[in-house]
Amino acid sequence: MNTGKHLSLNHQRSYELTRKDRLYKNLQRMQDLYGTRHFDFIPQSFILPAEYKELLTASHRLRCPWIVKPVASSRGRGIYLTYEPSDISIEEPVIVSRYIDNPLLIDDNKSDLRLYVLVTSYDPLVVYLYREGLVRCATVKYTSNAMNLDNPCVHLCNYSINKYHSNFRTSPDLEADDGHKRSFSSLIRSLSQSGKDTRKLIFSIEDLIIKTIASTASHVNIACNMFVPSFTNCFELYGFDILIDANLKPWLLEVNFSPSLGCDTSIDKQIKSAMLCDLLNIVGIESKVTEWCREENVCRTDKRQSGRFRSKSANNRRQSAKSDFSPIFHYFEEQHTRKGEFIRIFPTEISMYRYYDYAGTDLNIAFHNYLFPKGDRSMLGVKKSRRKDFEFPITDTDLARYQNYEEYFEKGYVSKKINNIVRPIAEIMRESPEDGNRWIDTIFEELKYSINAGKRLSVSQARKLFIRYLGCIIQRLPYLASQPGQQQLNLVEKFVCRVATKNRGLHQKLLASPRATVDDKVAFISAQLRSFIDGLEKECKDGSGFPNNNHLDAEILEEFCNIASETDFERLLALHTEVEPNCSLQFLFGRKFSDHTKLPLPVICEEGRLDLLKKACLLNGHGSPHIVEKPCSS
Ligand code: ADP
């Protein structure tokens, strides 16, 4: 793959960090090499099925809850808690971790953090932490009581699960210290006001991030050296999920690549759009690349191959590296001037002292010396095992860096960057419903005309429409739950139970649980439906059934999707089903449903709503759910 120097790319061997099992293995290797206490921020874990025996031994020694997670899943899917290793299904690879049962509680709810970490280079290692982040809270009061292990809204802080709970509130802005999704700065402010040592907390978080990234740097470097032609090509934004316990110790839960940039709430918009803006600035555009880079197209592989580094003594090597690589170092210094709200946490003046054992590569040392020529190097080479983390003196550099955070946390964030966010068309339409209705009708007529003229939905188009339709149903679930008899809610519940091929664990236990409230159920059904949608979306991305000339115009359809309501989606899909009965509702064809599909599913067709769901279920196509109609409720 030749990307040239003008492209930026990411995800170079990121799975070493972002797959839960690989992350644990990499950190475990560091524990073996340097001592567990230096890497004790990851809960003890076992990868199943391979380490089942070890899990049994550990659980005999200590009776505690375990949290079971599929190794390559996200958004809380498939996660459950148990005391009994024998309860754990090993049909798919899972990681079983010690459950941290003393989390920091916010308004009595469990919480965790999503922090944004930018690595602009792995060699030399350059790591930034964004000053703002998200605090995500569970929506049901925390209790470590074993009876409550099956309620995801108590134990999981994922927004994708808790947003469906009726308790869910989001903060209006970054200053507010309420809501189940709030800013990191508001948390630090309130901890600091209650006399907590937030400085130590921030330094421990920085330490956790640097050590985690350093643990996989060598893997990533190999990939970069093979595939990345220029040092300016590569960057990676990670979402670090960190749980803080009641003693303010941070625990690493997982590292996400492509952390969600979805802006469902205003606080998302404020944080993520500003972060993205800073990220694009810092990563830089071509005009920021120095003249030297443009002319020489510095190729790290060539430099390596010249062998200039390898044959020299450590001191000479540092010297020569300094002279050979000063344009690179200059580039990173220049990059630092565009840091915005990002704080460079590696290298810092004392990072070679602290992280020499883990990150003391030639280039890292050379860059460190370039940045801090007067820095204290007397500690270089002192074995890590002779030092104790967080017993090292907090240096002036640390304090200066902390001031950067403090300034921000105290002042709060002045949100200037987000004024120009493009408003979704749907929002504009909502403000003027009459115009919106006229417009949607016009588009619908145009699509209808095309369908009558012989054009059809491609499979991916039909699936997209169905996805949007289901999305509307999710939004309506709280309303359905408030209806007497909740018959429509039950319909949706049964639909999702059938189509769910994942998420059996915690969620399905919850449905059966007599302790589950209606709100818990709504949250559960929404999460399940969302998971089903994700599966359909993935299939759309796989590229099957791309539109061609025989299909509906993609642009018009896109416009329709932007403003259509549940009924609009329903009438378009229903129309298509009428003219194309043989391949009607192609969006479900070919999907494998769970065994439960044979169960009859009652349908309520009140006000024509959920009619499409009913039709989807009535399909006799391969693998589709079978459905029995019940009379409408009066
Ligand atoms: P996913 O990628 O599916 O979101 P995570 O590892 O982020 O999986 O875990 C999801 C949620 O589970 C987190 O929000 C956290 O609240 C909880 N969690 C995960 N691991 C632990 C643990 N070891 N101890 C306590 N809670 C945990």
TrEMBL record:
GO terms for biological process: microtubule cytoskeleton organization. Keywords: ATP-binding, Ligase, Nucleotide-binding. SUPFAM superfamilies: Glutathione synthetase ATP-binding domain-like. The keyword Translocase does not apply. InterPro entries: TTL/TTLL_fam. GO terms for molecular function: ATP binding; tubulin binding; tubulin-glutamic acid ligase activity. The keyword Ligase applies. This is Tubulin--tyrosine ligase-like protein 5. It comes from Artemia franciscana (Brine shrimp).
